[in-house]
Write a structure and sequence with these properties.
two-stranded antiparallel sheet, 8 strands, alpha/beta
């Protein structure tokens, strides 16, 4: 699994003119599910994201996590994180999980997050969405569960 994690002042996602999820200060996570990903990948990323110390303490150092600051979380599925642009000019998405498998693991990832005492908002899996992100810092972190295993 791959995630782009952005510290935000606010974020929202909408589809077909309907706001699906909106948060205040916290994290926006763009999540891609790849071929061969499983529950261990989802659990690893959920724990990593919740506990990432990317919020400043009184001295301005990255010492506080989402849990420490009481932030919110917006998770948006994004299979294009598996776009391979090494050949040609059009990305190949063959490394992305098939839609049914991707949705199953996306939902499992959300379940892993919901055990924590934070608010989790989401988009709609497979929908064409408009994501608004007010990146704070800017702080953007790339995570890949396969870099661990």
């Amino acid at each position: 699994m791959r995630a782009v994690v952005q510290r935000v002042g606010s974020g929202s996602v909408s589809a077909d003119g309907e706001v699906l999820g909106r948060i205040g200060p916290g994290l926006v996570v763009l999540l891609g599910v790849g071929q061969g990903d499983g529950p261990d990948d989802a659990r690893y990323l959920a724990d990593k994201i919740i506990n990432l110390r990317i919020f400043p303490d009184a001295a301005g150092r990255f010492q506080r996590s989402l849990l420490d600051v009481g932030g919110e979380l917006l998770v948006v599925s994004q299979f294009t994180l598996y776009g391979d642009c090494r050949q040609g000019r059009r990305p190949s998405f063959t490394q992305a999980a098939p839609p049914d498998e991707g949705e199953r693991l996306y939902r499992f990832f959300l379940d892993c997050l919901r055990v924590y005492p934070i608010r989790v908002a989401t988009g709609r899996f497979g929908a064409h969405m408009l994501v608004e992100i007010a990146n704070d810092g800017p702080v953007t972190i790339l995570l890949d569960s396969k870099k661990l295993f």
